[in-house]
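## retry 2 of 3
previous attempt timed out at serialization; input unchanged, resubmitting
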Amino acid sequence: MSKRITLVLVGLMGVLAVNAAMATGPMGTRDIAVGVWSPEEILEQAYQNIQWYEEHNVDVPEDVYDFYFLAERLVHPEYYSARDEAGSLDQFADACPGTVINGPDFGEMYITSTGSTMTANNDCSTPNARLGRDVMVNLNIFYPCRVTLRTAGSVFDTFLVLYEDNCCDSDNDFVVASNNNDPYLNYGQRLAAGLEVCLFPGDYYIVLDGASSAARGSYRLAIAIEDLCNEGDPSR
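## retry succeeded, writing output
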């Protein structure tokens, strides 16, 4: 990292520390006491702030998200390094049935896409999806396989839903799986969504959503199709 970039990051983290020390939390109390806090401690407190909103079923304010992701990018730039790599697809479609992806007849297939939900609509909503802006993928599977979805590198709180045979339907019978946060699948990034499921041949729909109405921005979705499923094990 160049000396100039390092100085900029240090300066920005100093601003974060000052803002955090003066910030009030959801309950009207200080989130971070005045004093010297490490960047990691600032990021942890920002994460706990988001958790408080979610646990109390309150929409996370946009500025709270902005603060968290600025801190995360400074503390963990490695989460976002993959965004600089070329993706195999452009922006996904903003409405059902979504961008069509045909899986292989056998073997492995890896797809990545980077785009933005800033100009997307909220086409899929509760009870199975969320209130954020979303994009869709129509994934056609032709042999029993393991499919892994990761949103690592996205700069907002992502949410994933996988449907079978019906895009965005509110009937739970069509929902294969959903996830809000899966750090395990996303190399430690805590607000990234992930799914790992065994799928039989069929027509599936991936919805990449924002975890709340204020969760929107640049995303990265990685799709891995591999013939490594254990029979009778529908998920990780």
